[in-house]
Amino acid sequence: MNRVFGVLFGVALASQALAGDVRYAAEGHAYNPIFSKDGKWLAYEVNSYDGGSIDMFVSSVAGAIAKDGIKVSLAGGSQFGATGQILINPTWHPAGQAIFEGSNQGGDYRLYIYQPGGGSPTELFTSAKASGNLTFPIVTADGNTIAFVSSATGAGDIRSWDRTKDAFGQLTTSEHSESFPTYSADNKTLLFNRNSGGTEDVFLLDLATKTEKAFVTGGGDQTRSTFAAGGTVLYFSNERGQDAWDIMAVDAAGANKRTVAKDVRLPLRSRPTLTADGQWVSWTSNKAELSGKVYLGKVDGTKTVEIDSGFNACGEPALAVNGGRTILAFTYLQNNGADWRKLTVLDVTDKLQ
Q1: Sign of the CA dihedral 19, 25, 26, 31?
Q2: What is the rounded distance in angstroms from the CA atom of residue 284 to the CA atom of residue 313?
Q3: Fold for the domain defined by 11-352
Q4: 126 Cβ partners below 8 Å, 6+ apart?
Q5: Any bridge partners for residue 285, and if so which?
Q6: Cα separations (Å) of 177 from 139, 156, 183, 197, 241?
Q7: Residue 83 — very low, low, confident or very high, per pLDDT cuts 50/70/90?
Q8: Which of 17, 48, 282, 301 has the fewest CB atoms within 10 Å distance of its CB?
Q9: Is the pTM of this model over 0.85?
Q10: How far is CA 220 from the centre of its chain?
């Protein structure tokens, strides 16, 4: 069994580029790695599937070397053993704090903020200011506003918090559930997903006028949308079939959809991951014969790069720039009999030429 700290990274990737495993003092599957804006920190979940908790760790990253993970625990939790705490869906403030969903002992999901290397996380705001379950946090590029989904109204509406004014706003009001809000780089619009009639579609909200419009619709789910270079929108779609996930691109509302990648392995929670300039996206395949490969593709469809990891079931890719180098994180199984999914980082700068 892969106990406590992972073994050193295998020969296959080491022969291609500088790479190294991310080590953490826990047993469980690593999921959902998310880099900070400057690429210096990596937050990720570890799930032992013991039915009681999901842990979150944060590792310092220098190039393709990640330091041992620091376990994040809510006040009253423990750094060791089962805690009954669920810490998931991290995102990053531009100033370097992790913001995430946390639930303690089966209570509501609330939003917490954590300074790496600091003490316990603190609640972002109290239930007196924003009640109910709070999920899917996202931060504007200037760090001044946070959008999130609140269960207090509708089936889960999107609200916002302006930290400079300590003021809350209601961004959507509908009888359907919303998820995965994402701000544009200029903070003028917000993408989000809405589930209605059993399927998800992508909507775009003008933040000045509070008017919204359907951006992408279709059969199946169009989900986890995000902005790429030039305002192009990427999203996951299973329009071809229940388990046939693709990464699709749309350059403007009503424009034709185009396929960036077919038959991708859907990440547990994250959106399509992009390089800092928004021009490259990474994915892995849900095809068994291709499960050891990680792909990098130009959003405009002009180039695809294949990286053979030498492992199995690669997934959950994340991209960042660290020290002028482009770093890729992804999870994998060491072999078919491995107990736990592991996490590694890899320098892919030379692959993007």
Answers
A1: negative
A2: 8
A3: Neuraminidase (2.120.10)
A4: none
A5: 264
A6: 20, 5, 18, 11, 22
A7: low
A8: 301
A9: yes
A10: 21
Alpha-carbon dihedral sign for residues 244, 245, 246, 252:
positive
Structure tokens at 237: 């779609």
- For the record, the structure tokens of 310 come out as 């030498």
Query: Which residues have a Cβ under 8 Å from the Cβ of 323 and sit 6 or more positions away?
Result: 39, 62, 63
Q: What is the 3-state secondary structure (H, E, C) of 237-306?
A: ECCCCCCCCEEEEECCCCCCCEEEECCECCCCCCCCEECCCCCEEEEEECCHHHCCEEEEEECCCCCEEE
The owner of tokens 């200037």 is 142
**Cα distance between residue 278 and residue 226, in whole Å:** 10
Query: By mean pLDDT, which of 41-45, 78-82, 229-233 is the weakest?
Result: 78-82
Report the candidate in 309, 301, 291 with the shortest Cα–Cα distance to residue 348.
309
- All structural domains of the chain with their residue ranges: 11-352
Half-sphere exposure of 6 (CA within 13 A, CB side): 27
